[in-house]
Amino acid sequence: MTLYGEKKPPADDRPTVEVTAVNWPADRPEPEASAAPPGTPARPRRFRLLLASGVATAVLASVGAVTVWAYAGDVPRGTSVMGTELGGRSRTDAARELRAQLDRRAAELAAPLQVRIGERSAEINPAEVGLTVDVDATVAAAAATDAHAVDRLVGSRQVEPVVSVDVAKLEAELEKLVGDQGRKMTMPAITFTGTKPKVRHPKPSLAVDPEHSADVVKAGWLSGQPVTVPLVESHPATSAEEVDRMVRELAEPAVAAPVKLTTDRGSVNIPPGAIAKGLRFKADKAGKLTASIDMKRLRDALGNRLNEVELAPKDARMTISRGKPKVVDGRAGQQVDTSSLGDDLLAVLPRTEDRTITAKLTEKEPKLTAEKLGGLGIKEKVSSFTTHFTGGLSSARSQNIVTIAKKVDGTVVLPGETFSLNGHTGERGYAQGYRDAPVIMDGKLVPGVGGGTSQFTTTLFNATYYAGLEDVEHKPHSYYFSRYPSVIESTIFWPNLDFKFRNNTDHGVLIDTSYTGSSLTVSIWSTKIWDSVKTEYSPRRNITSSKTVYLEPGPTCIPANGSQGFTQDAFRVIKKDGKVVKREKFTWTYRAEPRFICAKEPGS
């Protein structure tokens, strides 16, 4: 029993034409006149030809009449879809009739479809997976026929409706039904632990095939019968045997010895460890495993080795000379051409001998050329900020301030770029020239490498603040220090605390640093776009008092006078054309700094 039922074809009252084939070969002799019955006058050849022509004409006329009758309208007569006669209609009328039939059977079409996968069954709502009859496509199929088949002109034909389904939505519903009955494909892989290859053999997946499942569900929906969707096992394109072969023939010999890289500037060895990091085995969606060289990973693994054969490009830079910015040209560098290096390296890795490749050196332009730097609009001092310190330049703290100031001096921040102080200087440790000086750790001052760099951070923060540049990240100190402006100051600590600002202008930004024996100055050079940038403070509130804390005396104990705690707001007020265009609020709460005394507590 079908979903739509059956309809008996109407009585066939169409004419039947019987055609008898007549064949007179051209080389066949005319029959003798004596062959005619006695007394029958002989008919001349012309009469017989006219007779044959008349019969043929009558046959063709009959066939033509049938053709006209059968092909009246766009859809041939005798054509039906889902039990509905569409023959003899135009496509528009046929589509209208088919839609009316679908409307009459809407309840049947909307009924849940029983679907079974493995040991589980569920009902699927046809509307939720987009199961529909494509009326236009169905009518087009009904209108298509073979005009040379006479038997189809006078017979009847059933055309299956064209069914559409949203394959992605159907697959999602079927995946829910699959559940833990299925399994994902295990892709083949070859990786390295150090220089030892590690293998993962492939395993087939067990899942529904989206396209095949869609065909099964569409057919079941029309029949009104429960549907069983099979779970299909799909194997990766690369087998376990092929993985093992790739290990034997490529992965193992690849890291058995170094590869010599030669250039016009000399040669360098690529050690097995670097080869292992650069050699990658990647499987595509079909599970086909292929080998390639990741040049970025290989370069990172080589570290400074390539410095022996490469020449790094040097960016153009800008200095301040006699109160004006001046461009100093950079230079192009030479770098190993990696365009074919990966393929060349892959070619020699399976070898046990002759492991040498040759690479070309190509010119590497600097990131910032003199022409580009000169066009960034760095022409005037936009802001400047100075902080003071004691002890002269001989103290460890002052030396740390000078070290970080030199590292940042001359930095150009392009339009739209974000500057990170941690990112620019990297780790600030002994190896980078920093010394031990007081830092705040766990709420008290203790000796720590890089102490004093927070003063530079605060000075830089204020210079960018008064230049009107965008504050991205900063964190004020836990305690208030009178040498800094309250609220608008910043600490720094590698790697967790950073200071960042963004150049939110259309011009370049030059950071210029300078220092004396008692002060540090940071100036920002660019094109001035604001009339003024000023700070307005709210009164201090939530004031808390300092406590006295006695610490164990010794070389690690650093005394402090203490300070009050408080909360305060600072408003950055930016004006242009005499009007306030921005008013930004910064708020911070300082904890009361204890008065640290390096002595035993009295009475203890």
Automatic annotation (TrEMBL):
Region of interest (Disordered), residue spans: 1-42
Composition skew (Basic and acidic residues), residue ranges: 1-16
Annotated TM spans: 49-72
InterPro entries, per the entry: Glycopeptide_resist_protein, Vancomycin_resist_VanW, YoaR-like_PG-bd
Keywords noted in UniProt: Membrane, Transmembrane, Transmembrane helix
Keyword check for Endoplasmic reticulum: no
Pfam families per record: PG_binding_4, VanW
Domain YoaR-like putative peptidoglycan binding: 240-357
PANTHER family for this protein: EXPORTED PROTEIN (PTHR35788:SF1), EXPORTED PROTEIN-RELATED (PTHR35788)
Protein name: Vanomycin resistance protein VanB
Annotated organism of origin: Micromonospora craniellae
